[in-house]
Design goal:
heterodimer; A: alpha/beta; Rossmann fold; 9-stranded mixed β-sheet; 8 helices; 30% helix; globular; B: alpha+beta; FAD/NAD(P)-binding domain; D-Amino Acid Oxidase, Chain A, domain 2; 3 domains; 8-stranded mixed β-sheet; 14 helices
Chain lengths: 291, 440
């Protein structure tokens, strides 16, 4: 076990987005207390497992946080059963604005060296909360991770001159490419559901967690009073695709999917962060995404 | 499995299975102030359960007064029909009572994931600790063989207790492991299969002749493609369930797929107009302990009781097809006997005898004893394959007008038809006597 040098115990935080049941209760009408189909996404469960693995490796405690009504306590108690040491619920209505949720989350995770989130929720929301949390924390962020090397991350502490923890992770890029990252802490990470499978809670912990305390933090009225967030089914953004070139069906399919082709359409540049950000914005504008 | 001497316990009672039996046991035990853990293998109570039709929740009057004001009922059954089918004939005896559509009601259709979930909420409210997604894989015993707990599939998953109530459903592994079951005979089981078909509520109301929350339950003899068993059709608010109950050895011998038999039932001229244009929403199947008293296990062992389908409490007696009420009642009485035994400090088989005593003095075993011949009679080859045709042929000739020939008398029609179908008088008399003994 590698300890993070610090005067205060290290904390890994995991943000779990509780989503109410998508069913309206049918002809019998909605049942507000029906939690059978409410819960968190596989990505959130993967984030929790990763938080537990990381905490084991670096000797940290795990704080699980969810935003929602009291029905969300169940997912927090499940997290405690799995191994989380602290459960916190931000008392907010389901479907609150992502910016408000992120602002409140940032207050709770202020002392966390790593904040883990799932990269999508059950209701396929905006996916923007992790980035907003990182913004409020003024810390690094790495979103949409496909793997996190817990062992290498924990070992980074010993090798670092200042004893800082660095997270070693891999992020998915377009065109089947991968980006290998060394993310300095504190940081906010969001992970895909395939990153880890949540461990089964031991029976005694599952029983004990039924009465585990959940800290409830009252939140002020929403800061953002604009149009209410509208949750819709996930749809990829439409893009105009040129007709694929190719002499036969297989060739056209390959051209359409990039399957079996080496790079060529991508561009690798090495720039300082500020210039890199400007380049990305310029490129996106050039592609018409910021119009 | 574990022969260590166990002196400490984690709780007073472990109830295995949060179906109607287990949940009612847990409600009684928790209300008596006992520490109860209710283990359920599904993600929530009812998620893995299915049944063939109607809940008769009268027994709930004792546990949840005015249950009808809160239970997640689809429709109240006000029409009860019994249908006899041959490939191109149908005879229906149809009964309707508006009294069954008002409190305290009689029977109801309900979705088991709703009903069981609702019932389990009462157990939790009473103080039972419900743990889902947890499969009990075996029993813990002390050196003397007494059941002292259960082993689950969770890490650190042994739970030591003073009493285990096994409500783990048909084909109970726990009751078998405890040596309470006689050797299993596949002939004692049927396979229940069901399709849930979506139709708009107003279409269902129109086709079945009901309004509002009124519902229909049709039990069918015949129409199962030559496999011994029976069929059923019943209405939910905006779905119709069509299914069949099929005797396992016959199904295996005929090498028929159960979904083919449902397809045949749905295409019968008497059923097709009821379900035409419906969209299949769900297909489900489940074993049913069909043989009643003749297949019941011993109901108690040292440190253990068995209730519900795990104890073969399902009543399959032709015109009476009931299961959930027998499960709820057996669970409730198991809970009461457990409270009595725990307070007396005697959890031996003898100390738990109050369970069977309660079942014997109430409808649970009295009905099973009275109707003990019914399951084998109803599933016999003559009742299944000969009598439906005999009955429908007699009725067809009664109502057929053969002018200029004069109307034949009923006795002559019966004599002609029994002769045509090769029905021997002594078999008819013997089955009639069996029927009278069972249903009379």
């Amino acid at each position: 076990m590698t300890a993070v040098p610090s005067t205060a115990p290290a904390v890994v935080a995991v943000c779990l987005k509780w989503t109410p049941s998508p069913f309206d209760g049918g002809p019998l009408g909605p049942d507000e207390g029906d939690d059978r189909f409410a819960g968190v996404s596989p990505a959130d469960r993967a984030a929790l497992e990763l938080a537990l693995q990381l905490s084991d490796a670096i000797g940290a405690s795990v704080t699980a946080i969810a935003a929602g009504p009291s029905a969300a306590d169940r997912v927090l108690r499940d997290a405690v059963a799995a191994g989380a040491t602290r459960a916190v619920r931000l008392d907010m209505a389901a479907g609150s604005d992502s910016r408000d949720v992120a602002f409140e989350l940032a207050q709770v995770v202020a002392d966390a060296c790593v904040v883990l989130c799932g990269d999508y929720s059950l209701d396929r929301g905006s996916g923007a909360v992790p980035a907003f949390v990182a913004h409020h924390r003024r810390c690094a962020q790495a979103l949409g991770l496909v793997s996190v090397d817990v062992t290498a991350s924990a070992s980074s502490v010993a090798g670092a001159p200042d004893g800082e923890l660095t997270i070693h992770a891999v992020r998915r890029l377009d065109g089947g490419r991968r980006e290998v990252l060394a993310v300095p802490t504190p940081c906010v990470l969001s992970v895909e559901g395939s990153v880890a499978s949540l461990r089964r809670a031991p029976l005694r912990r599952a029983l004990a967690a039924r009465s585990a305390p959940v800290e409830v933090i009252a939140t002020p009225p929403a800061h953002h009073h604009g149009a209410p967030a509208i949750v819709t089914p996930y749809r990829p953004r439409a893009r105009t695709m040129p007709a694929p070139a190719g002499e036969d069906v297989l060739g056209r399919l390959r051209a359409l999917t990039d399957a079996g082709t080496s790079g060529g359409r991508g561009e690798t540049v090495e720039l300082a962060p500020r210039e890199a950000a400007a380049r990305i914005v310029d490129t996106l504008r050039g592609w018409g995404y910021l119009d | 499995m574990d022969d260590r001497s166990l002196t400490t316990t984690d709780c007073d009672v472990v109830v295995v299975g949060a179906g109607p039996a287990g949940t009612c046991a847990a409600i009684v035990l928790a209300r008596a102030g006992l520490d109860v853990v209710l283990l359920e293998r599904g993600p929530f109570p009812g998620s893995k359960n299915m049944y063939g039709g109607v809940v008769y929740p009268r027994i709930l009057d004792e546990l949840i007064p005015s249950w009808w004001e809160e239970a997640p009922v689809q429709r109240w059954v006000t029409r009860r029909s019994t249908m006899v089918l041959t490939p191109d004939q149908a005879l229906t005896v149809d009964f309707r009572s508006q009294r069954w559509g008002a409190p305290p009601y009689n029977g109801a259709t309900a979705y088991r994931p709703d009903f069981d979930h609702w019932l389990a909420a009462h157990a939790e409210a009473a103080g039972a600790q419900l743990v889902c997604s947890t499969t009990v894989t075996g029993l813990l015993r002390d050196a003397g063989g007494r059941v002292v707990g259960v082993r689950t599939d969770r890490p650190d998953g042994d739970l030591r207790t003073r009493l285990v109530i096994a409500c783990d459903g048909v084909n109970s592994f726990l009751a078998k492991e405890a040596g309470l079951y006689p050797p299993v005979d596949a002939a004692n089981y049927t396979l229940g299969v069901k399709e849930t078909l979506a139709l708009p509520k107003d279409v269902i109301d129109e086709r079945f002749g009901v309004r509002g929350r009124e519902g229909v339950d049709i039990e069918i003899l015949g129409g199962t493609g030559g496999v011994n068993g029976g069929g059923f059709v019943y209405t939910n608010l905006d779905t119709v369930a069509v299914g069949a109950v099929l005797k396992l050895p016959k199904l295996a011998a005929q090498r028929r797929r159960p979904e083919e038999i449902i397809a045949g039932l749905k295409s019968h001229p008497a059923i097709a107009p009821l379900v035409e244009g419906a969209e299949v929403k769900e297909y489900s199947a489940h074993l049913i302990p069909e043989a009643g008293l003749s297949m019941m296990p011993r109901l108690a062992g040292d440190g253990m009781l068995v209730a519900g389908d795990a104890a073969a409490m399902c009543l399959a007696a032709g015109i009476w097809l009931e299961g959930v009420n027998f499960a709820m009642a057996s669970g409730m009485y198991a809970g009461r006997a457990a409270v009595e035994a725990l307070r007396a400090g005697d959890l031996s088989t003898a100390g738990l005898a109050g369970y069977e005593r309660r079942l014997s003095s109430t409808f649970v075993l009295r009905d099973h004893r009275k109707l003990r011949r019914a399951p084998s009679l109803v599933l016999s080859d003559r009742v299944q394959h000969v009598y439906p045709e005999l009955i429908t042929s007699v009725v067809e000739r009664m109502f057929r007008v053969d002018n200029p020939a004069p109307k034949p008398g009923l006795r002559r029609i019966v004599r002609d038809e029994t002769k045509r179908l090769g029905v021997r008088t002594r078999d008819l008399v013997r089955d009639g006597i069996d029927g009278l003994r069972s249903f009379g």
